[in-house]
Automatic annotation (TrEMBL):
PANTHER family: ALPHA- 1,3 -FUCOSYLTRANSFERASE (PTHR11929), ALPHA-(1,3)-FUCOSYLTRANSFERASE 10 (PTHR11929:SF194). Keywords: Glycosyltransferase, Golgi apparatus, Membrane, Transferase, Transmembrane, Transmembrane helix. Pfam families: Glyco_transf_10. The chain crosses the membrane at residues 7-28. Its EC number is 2.4.1.-. Residues 218-401 form the Fucosyltransferase C-terminal domain. SUPFAM superfamilies: UDP-Glycosyltransferase/glycogen phosphorylase. One of its GO terms (molecular function) is glycosyltransferase activity. This is Fucosyltransferase. It comes from Penstemon smallii. It is a single-pass type II membrane protein. Belongs to the glycosyltransferase 10 family. InterPro entries: Alpha-1_3/4-FUT_pln (IPR017177), Glyco_tran_10_C (IPR055270), Glyco_trans_10 (IPR001503), GT10-like_C_sf (IPR038577). GO terms for cellular component: Golgi cisterna membrane.
């Protein structure tokens, strides 16, 4: 029995020694964390090409051509085919393009008068042709809408009481927290749970800007950041991340370029009109387009609060590094942003950004959605934006009967 035990131990030691030798010589290899099946949060790393050799690039067109030859739209569409075939059934967006019951409308024409000071663009004033033959007048002029069917308030509180025959009171709050006034008949916010939803994805947020988009990306300075509202929590996050990445910080917060208007000195092609004093929003998209990445951090990180900070970056042709709404993917195209919350640390995020900046194929994939027409939920986000708000509000007013609606 003792001899048998000794033999067993000897055989075990021999097998162990042989196993170690095979492993050290490369015949055996343990699976690493990176080679394991990725979890949903790890799938972002799969976009990097298998080559470990960095390939710095500046020309976006050349990166696109390389992606076309190695990946292509067919493969990208196949990867996201469920979004193309079935669409996405989510509760974060109202189905504003759904079938409308024309019989529910009680009016053929609705006029909306925008009241008080508001950031709502003047160029929204128009006469709109809506569904079911409904016409909609949206205006800030009490001359054009002398007997409005609804009054729209955004920065001021609606009248405390509404009598029979008075216009309906619509109140809009697109800020985080979306607090009702308590005196409105129709409530508009960025959230799908409210009466009328208005996302930040529309074009009317940034009319008349310089839309020159650079195809040459800055390869030395990777990240664009601009903020003039220096909120402590946002600043702290930005400071930590940007300390790990080369960046240009415009605006008032953490400025490292010599002043808030230095973008035009860096990129004179972004000057909109040499005869006018520049406004920061005139050259925003143009300046962003020179960088591979734009850091976008929401003022408040809450459900469905996805603001222009993200959509500006997408429009500029940069890749957003985003911190904000936990359900952000319900509002944007597939594989279009780097979600900072998917990384275990800012160091890991910065490492990924640096690797992506030196991988033209992986970087180009972040632009594939627009080149291949794979929009996902983004189409619905645009459909529920400020651009379509006039008709959707007029439909809501018409359903209630406008001035004929009984006061509560």
């Amino acid at each position: 029995m003792q001899l048998k035990s000794i033999n067993t131990i000897a055989i075990t030691l021999m097998f162990s020694f042989t196993f170690v030798i095979l492993f050290l010589t490369g015949f055996l290899e343990f699976p690493s964390v990176n080679s394991s099946i990725p979890s949903p949060k790890d799938t972002i790393f799969s976009t990097l090409t298998k080559s470990n050799t960095p390939e710095p690039f500046q020309d976006l067109h050349k990166a696109f051509n390389k992606w076309d030859s190695q990946v292509g739209c067919s493969q990208f569409r196949e990867k996201h085919k469920e979004l193309l075939i079935n669409g996405s059934k989510i509760s974060s967006l109202q189905n504003v393009e759904g079938v409308i019951q024309c019989g529910e409308l009680q009016m053929n024409h609705v006029s909306v008068l925008v009241k008080g000071w508001t950031w709502i663009p003047d160029n929204m004033d128009n006469l709109y042709s809506c569904r079911c033959g409904l016409s909609c007048l949206w205006t800030k002029s009490s001359v054009l809408a002398d007997k409005p069917d609804a009054l729209l308030f955004e920065t001021t509180t609606p009248p405390l009481k509404r009598r029979d025959g008075d216009p309906l009171r619509a109140y809009m709050d697109l800020e985080a927290g979306r607090k009702r006034s308590g005196y409105e008949d129709i409530y508009i916010s960025y959230h799908a749970k409210d009466d009328v939803q208005s996302t930040y994805a529309g074009a009317l947020f940034h009319n008349n800007r310089n839309y020159h988009i650079s195809s040459i990306k800055n390869n030395e300075t990777l990240v664009y950041w601009s903020s003039s509202r220096c909120l402590p929590q946002r600043n702290q996050l930005a400071k930590k991340l940007l300390s790990l990445l080369t960046h240009h910080s415009f605006g008032k917060c953490m400025n490292n370029v010599g002043g808030p208007d230095m973008a035009l000195s860096f990129y004179p092609e972004c000057i909109k009109d040499a005869n006018e004093a520049p406004k920061w929003w005139d050259h925003l998209h143009c300046a962003m387009s020179h960088y591979k990445f734009v850091l976008a951090i929401e003022n408040t990180m809450t459900e469905s609060y996805v603001t222009e900070k993200l959509f500006y970056a997408l429009d500029s042709g940069a890749v957003p590094i985003y911190f904000g709404a936990p359900n952000v993917w319900d509002f944007i195209p597939p594989h279009s942003i780097i979600d900072g919350t998917q990384f275990s640390s800012l160091e890991q995020l910065a490492s990924y950004v640096r690797s992506l900046a030196n991988d033209p194929v992986a970087y180009a994939e972040y632009h594939a959605w627009r080149r291949c027409g794979v929009l996902g939920n983004y189409g619905k986000t645009r459909a529920a934006s400020l651009d379509t708000l006039p008709c959707r509000l007029c439909e809501a007013v018409s359903r209630k009967g406008g001035r004929n609606s009984k006061a509560l």
